[in-house]
Amino acid sequence: MRGKVYLVGAGFGGPEHLTLKALRVLEAAEVVLHDRLVHPGVLALAKGEKVFVGKEGYGERTSQEAITERLVALAREGKVVARLKGGDPMVFGRGGEEALALKRAGIPFEVVPGVTSAVGALSALGFPLTFRGLSRSFAVATGHDPRLPLPLADTLVLLMPLHALEGLKARLLERYPPDTPLALLARVGWPGEEVRLGRVRDLPGLGAGLPSPVLLVVGEVVGLYEELR
């Protein structure tokens, strides 16, 4: 008997941002393979065996190949498996790679979307990504490698920027004036949540001492935050 793998988005922060379908899968799964950025409150809802397959910061990690092999092996044992990821599995979660590997191995799978922090965390805090007259476009990119070019948009959201803020400042100044508003959002939906407001010129110092995970949002809409909160 073949099992099935669910690629599940845990959303950002605690279980209040979990979808009903994700909750049903967590309650039914026999094994849950989870990443570091899954909130403990979400993990507590899982009924089956919980296996950590993420990484701790820039230290030890489980290779993507090992994760995929384990998913395939468990499914071939007839297990119902939840591959649980923070945010949405298809947004910087390597869900596409895992889905392709499962398809090629002949393993039934299903994607259960989650609320990505790149949108949900900003909305929850009162940061509009779009606003008539200020922002008609937004882009989301990883921020861990400042050598990569940044997308062009009125509002820019960068994930994982904390260790590259100095290099990102130079990149941002290629696209935005130095007085463009920005915000660093740390641990949204977790204990220790923090919001720091500033300008492009305030990097990298604005990020000093912030705990991860962090989002960086840049654009004129950031200037609305204090009025909207």
TrEMBL record:
Gene3D superfamilies: Cobalt-precorrin-4 Transmethylase, Domain 1, Methyltransferase, Cobalt-precorrin-4 Transmethylase, Domain 2
Tetrapyrrole methylase domain boundaries: 4-203
A Pfam family: TP_methylase
Enzyme type, top EC level: transferase
Gene Ontology biological process terms in this record: methylation; siroheme biosynthetic process
EC number(s) on file: 2.1.1.107
Lineage: Bacteria, Thermotogati, Deinococcota, Deinococci, Thermales
Full protein name: uroporphyrinogen-III C-methyltransferase
Membership in a protein family: Belongs to the precorrin methyltransferase family.
Species name: Thermus brockianus
GO MF annotations in UniProt: uroporphyrin-III C-methyltransferase activity
Keywords, ordered alphabetically: Methyltransferase, Plasmid, Porphyrin biosynthesis, S-adenosyl-L-methionine, Transferase
Keyword Transferase annotated: yes
